[in-house]
Amino acid sequence: LVQRDSAVTRGINVNALAADAIHVLEPQARAQGVTVRLDPGPDLPPITADGIQIEQVMLNLMLNGVQAAQG
Asked: What is the pLDDT of residue 5?
């Protein structure tokens, strides 16, 4: 089995990750006539996780939403 180095970091701001994902997604959403809005959670605690992986999951979910809204 191959193990990769852990990229887990502490104190990741979930709202900031969501904002970053929206920044990447927004041009594509706009081109498809979809408006993306972020309503950040005011009391979300920082998490311990791999921020890159969490942002990728968020981006994939948002892309799925854009594709569903377009149809």
From this structure: 60
